[in-house]
Fold this sequence. Notes:
alpha/beta; eight-stranded parallel sheet; five-stranded mixed sheet; 15 helices; 15 strands
Amino acid sequence: MITRRKTRQIHVGNVAVGGDAPITVQSMTTTKTADVDGTLAQVYALAGAGADIVRITCNEVEAAQGLAEIVPRSPVPIIADIHYQYRLALAALEAGVHGLRLNPGNIRKEDQIKSVAREAKDRGVPIRVGVNAGSLDKDLLDKYGSPVPQALVDSALIEIRYLQDVDFEDIKISVKHSNVPSMIESYRLLSETVDYPLHLGVTEAGPPPAGLIKSVAGIATLLNDGIGDTIRFSLTADPVEEAKAGRQLLENLGLRERKGLDLIACPSCGRAEVDVIAVATQAQTALEAENLPIQVAVMGCVVNGPGEAREADIGIAAGRGRGHLFIKGQVVRVVPESEMVEALLDEARKLVEEGVESRLAHAEAHAAEIAAAARDELIQIQGDANRSQDRRARVAEIARSD
Ligand code: SF4
């Protein structure tokens, strides 16, 4: 059970961030903001994949104009990402954005920051102080020699003071670093210093799988410490993957309710009666298209599959040319192996519609006995684990052949 650090709560549009609000997922569009329809299509895709808030760059006048059309049609709150030109922050506010991200390393003039804060305050719009190790304030880089955690935190604190000077408190903060231990240390340091909500991320994490691993290592470590109120995976990939990954991480940590599919699959072993990777991939594709909020198990053999995956809502295990469908570990249906993915999909739909008790009540007569017989037969055939006797004989036969 994770105990979250207490933070103030702010609102990005209708989404609460911090305090006791659920931890939110963010992502960022990669389209040109001036392309209103293209950007909106991506915003919808990101929202569908689990993003609660979407950030969009506001890097030119045409982008700010695009925001004026995008924001009213967006299904989720929109944050404008601002670098260098404070006037674009003012323009984005006029366009109706629900939040701003200011990079202290790129907008450094106090009067400009304060003028944005006054306007944001009048409109009730929060600001993220988005410090990034790669674009740290030059004075701090000179002072510390490199973007060490204390330098990132100092940058955030300087910016916060400017905001507080004009009574602006709707603040959240990020101190992103591409080096995971430095990122973790920066956020830990920051969380000891302020009680504003924190936006977590490993910057420039790169393409998956390495980018995913770095992001999970940094973000999950902090979440497990109770630090973090909103997260973003910064992947060099389709941003839909970022949103999915963020959502899945929170669901796996028990910090958000499951919204979509959770597919578990055994790693396969010598007992497998089917190509587990192929079946799991087919099942994932078919089930993801339906986006059913259940945990589904794909198991390579009926010897251990139903038992090992008894916590899953539904699953399938192969054996003796058949697929054994099970619900909460109890086998309810047996189908030819070639039909197992289709049957799994059909049963999954019914399970979501009718519930566990109803589907267990509809279990096929003898399904459990057929599965038990297949299991016993396999144990007889395989003997000790992984058919070692058969394999030894076959190895000897090959070794002795001419
Ligand atoms: S024993 Fe069966 S369920 Fe377990 S890993 Fe091997 S094939 Fe998969």
